[in-house]
Structure formats: structure tokens, C-alpha cells
Amino acid sequence: MLRIRLLIIFVVSILLILAVACSGGDSTSQEATSNEIDPDEASNESSDEENNETVEVDFEDLEEIDYDNFNQPTQIDNQWLPMKPGNHWVFEGSTDEDGERIPHRIEFTVTGLTKEIDGVPTVVAWIEDYADDELVEAEIAFYAQDDDGNVWYLGEYPEEYEDGEFVEAPAWIAGLEDAQAGIKMKAQPRLGTASYSQGWAPAVEWTDRGQVHKMGQQTCVPADCYDDVLVIDEFNEEEPGAIQLKYYARGTGNVRVGFRGEDPQQETLELIDFESLDPAGLAEANAAALALEARAYENSPDVYGQTAPSQVPAGNEAALALVEKEFEEFNYDNFDNSTQIDNRWLPMQPGTQWVFEGVTIETGDLVPHLLTFTVTDLTKEIDGIPTVVAYIEDHSNDRLVEAEIAFYAQDNDGVVWYLGEYPEEYENGRFVDAPAWIAGLENAFAGIKMPAEPQMGTPSVSQGLAPFVQWADRGQVYQMGQRTCVPFDCFEDVLLIDEFTLEEPGAIQVKYYAPGVGQVRVGFRGTDLVPEILELVDRSQLDPEALEEVRDAALALEQRAYDNSPNVYGKTPPAEGP
Predict the structure, then answer these.
(1) What backbone torsions phi and psi does residue 321 show, to the nearest 5 degrees?
(2) How far apart are CA 274 and CA 115, in angstroms?
(3) 512, 454 Cβ separation under 8 angstroms
(4) Which of 313, 389, 427, 565 has the greatest number of C-beta atoms within 10 Å?
(5) pLDDT grade for 547, boundaries at 50, 70 and 90
(6) CA nearest 323: which of 187, 501, 58, 110?
(7) Nearest in space to 458 (alpha carbons), one of 441, 444, 479
(8) Of 244, 124, 106, nearest in space to 173 by CA
(9) To which H or E segment does residue 22 belong?
(10) Closest Cα partner for 363 from 289, 309, 316, 400?
(11) What letter does residue 419 receive in the DSSP assignment?
(12) CA-CA-CA-CA dihedral for 147, 247, 43, 18, to nearest 10
């Protein structure tokens, strides 16, 4: 009997020792496990009494910003939130909607743009938020770092969508409508310190605050495993008890998002990719952010409309063109069916119409831009080659600034050639100039608009040469296999072509082409003095009545061409109808 009692005592003692060992340890060094963010196990986190004490928060306790303490505000090298232009984070996870977990994806990009907010130059970030593969929010947001290393948040313009339709844009900008900047990341986060405002904008109910929750954690996400992780609580006045957890790794930034408390959305996100974009990717991000800004001026005139436009830093990129020939050799015997243009990158079926919208940046101002490109059913012989006639209208700020007819032909190898154009330019509704050029006249030469099989690393090609009107455009493959989304659709396997002239080194227009569709986007990089940003908003096949209307407009323009350009256009035979 004594032996049995001693055995029982021994077993109980061992169990107690094991229990104490399992529950011991410093909480600041424990691994941040999935229990902390898994909505099915979220109650584990809420049982942490040490970190869940109810503290009365004064949401109007705002941060005092010292405007004299921002000598290099766009150099954001805070170890917890580095924001170098081109940094690109991709997160995937889910949110709760009516008890159902919905797939969620966020892409956060630091652009190469800057914007002055409340007198402080800021870095412009571009964010896209997808729920169940549908874009639900697109945003530009503004960050600056003070001389002490604190990263400040100075505002945002978020566009919210439902079923693909714009719903609202609750923008706030520090210094406008009682909004004030807040701190997004402290230079030296510390446990036990009070919460801090991340910005204050009562007009749109923005009252977010942050507070250090844990330090020295470990966490693993698809992108990598991280040690010494910082966890920040984020919460606001409108949702008491709902706490979002953000995990930050040194030198990387945000790597995970979780929740605790009574967060109705129960958002969970994990970093799946962190990279530095190549120049093509950064140029696309810049263009997308500027396009969003253009809409911001329209949708938020009383807030965003009071800000200065974002700035495009002067690039140091040259065209880097491997120029081999001043103009392209043209084989007149290689055009057996020249008006059948079925190049996969630039298909030109009669009646096809592309509509682009965007902006140009003129002396710092964003000017709305609309361009319509239509393939007519007309043909015209240029330098002995039958060509397809395109009709183009270019509107700036709702006013026609250029109307043009242009001439294309495809050779037997599938190369699309550009054989000339007649553009009429207008100012304040009045005709100004018509710098026409036609291949074979006045020492003008045809050029290649689209190769049959574009290849990376190939030399630039002439897109036409007409010295007497200073036309010397060149094209060069910049990137292939890209993805881009525009209002009309999203496209894979996209081809990017740099267009430039040797007279303006470093000024590069970037054109995006989708297979089977043609051009879908226009951007820029380098030092373009009048940067242009366009996105495809519609592509359609015109009905016979609409096509006839465009045909008549093109023929009317041609009639004026014979009057305005007798020494060039006047030497060509008339365009012919179907």
C-alpha cells in the first residue's frame, strides 16, 4: 500500500513539473503561431490578459508634427517599414463576410512618385485590394519619414468598388478639413508605451491608432520565416474591441495581418512575395498611380482637388537603343495582301475601334485626355503599296486638339509598316498646323510599327523617317510576358514597346500590347517633358452605320489635307471606299 502511495505521489509530481515547464517562459520570445490569427482559434489570443487590459483611449490625442523636422522625407529607411521606390509586397488571405471566408489579395507598391502634402514631400504608395478575385479598392497613400526616423502617414485617396462599379472615395489629406497626419511606424517601437494616432480625419471617420503589442516574435509566411518580429495593434474609435494585428519584420516591413477581439471582418493575410520591381514594373505602377490621381481630382474636388499634382522624378534612363539603321529597308515586292493586317500584337480589322482615357502632365497639371482610334474600311495607295486608313481623334480637356488619318500595311512576313500620316492640330478650336509626311515623298521613309515576332534584346527599329517635319520615331522591345489591368479588361502575356526619338534622349513613351487585342495602355519613363498616360476603356466592332460615320469623317479630313498639304498629301491618289 505504501508503495502504491509513493508511486502516485511520484507520478503527480512529474505531471506538475511538466505542466509548469509547458506554461513557463518569457511571452516576448514565444513564436507567433497561427492560433493568434486563425479565425477558428482566435479565442486563444483573447485569453492573453496581460495584453488585453482595457485601457481608456483618447482618440483625439493626436501627434504633434514638426514641419521643420523633415529634411529628407522621401528617404524612408525605417527598419520596420522600409519604402524604397519599386518595393512590392503581395499578400493573400481571407476575410469573413456573413460567416463565409472570402479569398483576399492585396498588392502594395512604393511608386517612384512624390507628392507634397501639407508642405511635406511624401512618397506615393499604390495599393490594390481584391476580394474573391474582384477589385474592391484601389488606393494611393502618402508617407514621409522625419529626421528622427518616424514614418508619418499624411493621407490617402481610396476608390471603393462593388460589382466592378465605383461606389465612393473617402479621401483625407493632412491639413485639409481638420485632418492631421499620424505616425505609421515609430523609429524605436517599445513595449508598454501608449497608443499613438495614425492620422485623424473626422470628416471620413478616420481615427486609426497603433500600439506595440509584442516584440521579438517569430512567424512564418509563404514568402519566408522571420525572427525578431514586431506586432502592432491597430484599432479605431468606430469599432471598439476590434483589433487588427500587423506583423513587421526588420528590413522587409509588413509580413502578416491578423486580428483579435471583436473584429467583424477577421482579416488574415500572409506575405507571399516581396520584390523590387524592374523598371518596366515601376513604370507601370507610376502610370497606374497617376491614372488614379487623375480620377481623384474629379471625384474629390474639395479635398484631393486642393493638392498639388504628384511629381515624376527626373529619370537618368537613356533610350539605350541599339540603333543599327537610320531607316528600315523596304521590300516593295513583299506586300501581296497588304491590307489584311492580322499581326497578333496589332490586329487592324476594318471597323475595330479602341477608346483610351487618361491624362497628360503639362507644366505640373494633370490634363484629362481622350483618344479614339478607328480602323476605317478605306484603303489608300502610299508609295505604290495599298494601305489601311486609320482615323484618330485626340481630345484634351474635352476639346479636340488633333484629328489624323494614318496609313498601315502588313508585309508577307507579318510585319506591320507605318507609311505616313496627315495630322491636323488645333488650339482653342482653331486649325494651327498639319505636319503631314508620306513615305516616298520629300525623302520620307516607311518604318516598322510592329514586328511579326518581337524579341527581347533586339535593336530599335525606325517607325518612319521624315526629317522635314522632324519625324524620327523609333521603337524597341522593352518587356514581354507582362500582366496589366485597364478599365476594359486584364491581360496576360503583354508586350511593352519603348517609343522615343534620338532628338529627345531619355524621354520614353511605353506602349502596352495584348495579343489579339492590340494596344491597351500607354505609359512613360525617363524624362518625358509631357508625360502621357492612357488606358483602354473600350474596344468594339462598329456597326455599319457607325463605320460609315467614321468613314465620312476620314474622307472629310482627307479633303482638307489636299488643301493644307498640296506639296505632300496633294501628290497622293485619293482614298478608296469598300
Answers:
(1) -85, 135
(2) 24
(3) no
(4) 389
(5) very high
(6) 501
(7) 479
(8) 124
(9) helix 2-23
(10) 309
(11) E
(12) -110
Q: Which amino acid does the sequence have at 291? A: A
* DSSP summary character for residue 484: E
Cβ 174 vs Cβ 183: under 8 Å: no
Q: What is the pLDDT of residue 56?
A: 62
* Residue 313 to residue 176: CA distance in whole angstroms: 25
CB-CB neighbours of 195 under 10 Å: 18
C-alpha cell recorded at residue 384: 505604290
- The DSSP secondary structure of 514-570, one letter per residue, reads ETTTEEEEEEEEE--SS-EEEEEEEEEE--HHHHHHHHHHHHHHHHHHHHH-TTTGG
The residue written with cell numbers 502575356 in the block is 493
Name the percent of the chain lying above pLDDT 70. 86
Question: CA 361 to CA 379: how far, in whole Å?
Answer: 35
Could you give the 3-state DSSP secondary structure of residue 176? coil
CA distance 245 to 46: 12
Residue 203, C-alpha cell as written in the block: 470628416
Q: Which amino acid is at 225?
A: C
- Amino acid residing at 554: A
Phi, psi of 135 (to 5 degrees): -65, 120
Single pTM value for the model = 0.57
Q: How many residues does the chain have?
A: 578
Which residue would you say has higher pLDDT here, 162 or 539?
539
pLDDT of residue 34: 35
Single-letter amino acid code for the residue at 553:
A
Give the pLDDT band (50/70/90) at residue 292.
confident
Contacts of 74 by beta carbon, 8 Å cutoff, 6+ apart: 114, 121, 122, 123, 144, 145
